[in-house]
Design brief:
Length: 296
C-alpha cells in the first residue's frame, strides 16, 4: 500500500496533454512556500478549516483521544491525534478532513484508467507528484512499473533529492522528469529547504548524460530567495543540454493548508509574482538557445 494525498483528474500543468496527477505523501524537504504541506508526512493527517468551523464543539466531545481542545481556541494536539476520522463524521459544516489514504497500485491505476481516452486524444498520461513521489520508494517503484506496463505516459514531478541508485532504478520507466532546481548555492539551498545540493546535482548529471531530452528543469521563483538565480539556472540547464526550463512564479495557494495544519506560513506578506516580470528570462533563453517557459 502507498499513502496518497490526492488524485487530481484533468490536470493540464503537470506535463503534456490531459493528465491524472497522483500526489504521493512524504517529503524530505521543508520549503517554506510549499503548496502541499499536508504531503510532508507519510501518515494521513487531520486538517481544520477555521473559516467553516461554527465552534459547536461536537468534535471535541466525540474524539476518543481527547486530541481536540478549545482553550482558548480550536486546537488539535497532533501528538494525540490518530487521524481516525471520528471527528470528521460529527462535523456538519465539513470543517475537518483527513488528508491522505492508503491505496494499492491497482486502485490508483483503476482511477487513472477512467480517463484513458483523454490521454490518448491529448498525448497525456499520469504524473506522480507529492511531496516527493519517490519518498515511499519501494511502493512508488511498484506503481511506476505498473504504469509503464499499462503503457501510460508517465511524468515524475520530483525534487531529485535521493540517491543516484534510486534514480537509476526508476529512470527506464519514466517518460518525463519534471525536476526542480531551486538554487545553485548549496548552503542557501540547504538552509532554506533542507535539500542536499550534491545529491541533486549528481542526479541531474546522470540524466544529462543518459537522457537529457527526458528532462524539464523546473524552478519555483521565490521572493527574496532565488530571483537572482534565474539566469544562472537557465545557463546551467543549457550547459547540461536540457531542452527546457519552466519558471514557476510564486503563488500563495498553499497558505490555507498551512493554517489548516496549525503551521505558520512565513510567506503571507509576499504578493503573487507577476508572470510579466519573468518575460526577460524567456528572451534570455532564446539568446542562449534553450526554451524557457513561464508556468508548467
Ligand atoms: S465539529 Fe466541526 S464545526 Fe463543530 S467545532 Fe468541530 S470543527 Fe468546528
Ligand atoms: S482524527 Fe480521531 S484522534 Fe484525531 S482529532 Fe479526530 S477523532 Fe480525535
Amino acid at each position: 500500500m502507498i499513502s496518497v494525498s490526492n488524485i487530481e483528474r484533468f490536470a493540464i500543468h503537470d506535463g503534456p496533454g490531459i493528465r491524472t496527477t497522483v500526489f504521493l505523501k512524504g517529503c524530505m524537504l521543508h520549503c517554506p512556500w510549499c503548496a502541499n504541506p499536508e504531503t510532508w508526512g507519510v501518515q494521513p493527517v487531520l486538517m481544520h478549516d477555521e473559516k467553516k468551523c461554527v465552534h459547536c464543539r461536537l468534535c471535541e466531545k466525540h474524539c476518543p483521544q481527547k486530541a481536540i481542545t478549545f482553550e482558548p481556541d480550536f486546537h488539535i494536539d497532533y501528538s494525540l491525534c490518530r487521524a481516525c476520522g471520528t471527528c470528521t463524521q460529527t462535523c456538519i459544516p465539513n470543517a475537518l478532513e483527513i488528508s491522505g489514504k492508503w491505496m494499492t497500485a491497482e486502485e490508483i491505476l483503476d482511477e487513472a484508467t477512467k480517463d484513458k481516452k483523454y490521454y490518448e486524444n491529448s498525448q497525456g498520461g499520469i504524473t506522480l507528484s507529492g511531496g516527493e513521489p519517490l519518498f515511499q520508494f519501494e511502493e512508488s517503484f511498484e506503481l511506476i512499473q505498473r504504469i509503464h506496463e499499462e503503457e501510460f505516459h508517465l511524468a515524475l514531478e520530483t525534487t531529485g533529492n535521493y540517491s543516484l541508485e534510486k534514480l537509476q532504478k526508476v529512470e527506464p520507466y519514466v517518460d518525463l522528469f519534471l525536476m526542480d532546481c531551486k538554487h545553485l548555492d548549496p548552503e542557501k539551498l540547504y538552509h532554506v529547504t533542507g535539500a542536499d545540493y550534491d545529491q541533486i546535482m549528481e542526479n541531474f548529471a546522470y540524466l544529462s548524460k543518459h537522457c537529457p531530452q527526458k528532462v524539464i528543469v523546473r524552478m519555483p521563483v521565490i521572493w527574496d530567495f532565488n530571483q537572482d538565480q534565474i539566469e544562472k539556472i537557465i545557463e546551467w540547464a543549457a550547459t547540461l543540454h536540457f531542452p527546457e526550463v519552466d519558471l514557476l512564479p510564486y503563488h500563495s495557494l498553499g497558505k490555507n493548508k498551512w493554517e489548516n495544519l496549525q503551521m505558520k506560513y512565513s510567506y503571507a506578506q509576499y504578493p503573487l509574482m507577476d508572470k510579466k516580470d519573468l518575460m526577460p528570462a524567456v528572451e534570455y533563453g532564446k539568446k542562449i538557445g534553450i526554451r524557457v517557459k513561464i508556468g508548467g
